[in-house]
Description:
Oligomer: single chain
Shape: elongated
Helix content: under 10%
Number of strands: 9
Strand content: over 45%
Structural class: mainly beta
Amino acid sequence: xxxxxxxxxxxxxxxxxxxxxxxxxxxxxxxxxxxxxxxxxxxxxxxxxxxxxxxxxxxxxxxxxxxxxxxxxxxxxxxxxxxxxxxxxxxxxxxxxxxxxx
Length: 102
């Protein structure tokens, strides 16, 4: 059984027990969070919501809030002697899928 959930403008295909990294959520470590289900499959049938499935939910436990590795971005203008180096660390929330309810 798997479900398709949406959070942070992205969609994720999840099974029970999966650990995923999603866009940062305003929750503390150890809390539980519920996601709306866009699609659900149990092996024989596949249901798609418009836009979400009524009565279906995915429950997840928050494991960690953190930041990913730093990436560097360089702006450069040719023949102007102009350079700018910037770094960025994307915040994330690590969650474990506890249950999928239809």
